[in-house]
Known about the structure:
The complex is a heterodimer. By secondary structure, chain A is mainly α.
Amino acid sequence: MTVTASPSAPAAAKSKPLSTLLYRYRWVRLVGLLSLPLTWLIGLYIVSLALLLVTAFWFIDPFTSKVIPGFTLDNFVLVFSEPAYVTTALRTLGIALAVTLLSAAFAIPLGIFMAKLASPWLRAVLAVAITLPLWAGYLVKILAMRITFTEEGFFNWVMAPFGITGPGFSLFTVVLTLTYLWFPYMALPVYTAIRQIPVNLFDASADLGARGATTIRTVVLPLLWPALLAGSVFTFSLSLGDYIVARFVGGANAQMIGSIIASNINLNPPVAAAFSVIPIAFVVIYLVVTRRTGALERM
Amino acid sequence: MLRLTRGTTVAFGIVVGIVLLFMYAPLFLVIINSFNVAPIANWPISGFTFDWWVRAFQNEALWAAVQNSVIVATGAMIIALVLGTLAAFALQRFEFFGKHTVNLLIVLPIALPGVVTGVAFSNSFNNVLEPAGIQVGYFGMIIAHATFCIVMVFNNVFARLRRMNPSMQEASMDLGASLWQTFRLVTFPQFRTAFVAGGLLAFALSFDEIVVTIFTAPAGVDTLPLWMFNQMARPNEATQVNVIATVLILLSFIPVYISQRLTRAEEEER
Lengths: 299, 270
């Protein structure tokens, strides 16, 4: 064995020096793998973000309206003191929270129905049905909600016999449209989590005298927290940064943080930069907290 | 078994019905409105016409926008495939200091609002690179899109690598194959479906993106979402948008079909 193998081994090593080098030194392989992605992400993205955030400390020359490098905290003071800005920031947080709660309120019964009540055939159909609109396009869905809730639209037509006029383009429609956009991101992890609950937990709960509703409240819901947290990362962060929805279905009084960033970037870049700190802070905190709980890994 | 009272079961069924209605009714309204005689959306529609469909297909600006979208999405997908796969191998096969930070770095471009990413890139392109004499032009869009597409490829390939058996590669190298031969003949075939799925997701994400595009598209260049956005901003001219939206709704069946096929093929492989 050793006699036949030994002559070929050095020959192989000699003919493939790169393979040998890479095999021998792990760090060479690691550097080789990481250098390109890290150069891209840090060199292009993080540097761009840093340059934007630095602008938040600069100011505008009142006469030439040119951006002057320097150091001032005035932009942040303005963001947190100007009533219109504070209202917008709070409104945006409220919208993101409402979208998350509304998504969860629909996702839980949908998940229970799909995972535990529906027949296998119906379950398969519903699983496809809730993933299908995920792909239908962001602007397509906004357009769809616009057509549904417009003055002469479908919603008002359906509700007219009951004497109800729809919400039109308003804050309510913004919440509804954002829910429409991000609901599948909440529904899918919740459904997966409910499916994974072992059947014998329900049997045990029933044996101990709990009725269906009690079982849902005391057995199912506590097991859903990781999935709800994972879903909320999407529903909350994606709603927090959106401004296109507010623009198209929000009417006059639905400005969001994104609207202010977008409208100020040419007029007053330092204020836009200061404002973008709010969503960045929220999203990073949210990501770190959810990582701690391990919710994202279970998806 | 979860036993619920008849009332609760019915109530849950009603919630499911409402969810499905809420998800699909607006999409059907878009499709029907693309045949609406009236230029402004209404219900019931004023009359039936193919006029908007004919006009949309003859609209050269629209075709140019489609072409731009395909170019940008293809470019972003290729870059994301390379960078995402490299990063997935690094994070799956190695333990090193700062691993979680690298992971966060990959997720960040998709987690941060598009408006922040878009504004940051446009600031770099216009206020830093341009004064330095570097015109990114068309490539600015591709660079920005590729950045948030990396995570799509990364997630798919990473999840697959976790399930792969590393001793297969050791066996291949023991038998004298070079690193490249091992990758081409042993490793790659094992994560090919995840690679393709990640690439498709990256393409779809870029094709659909609007916010980052608003800030990074060079003047006078429209992608398909940008064209739609501009049309929707002028509600009286939004008629051809319904046609495009209908086509996009119908096209969205394709990725669902492919992903179903891929998962089925995967289950048969095992």
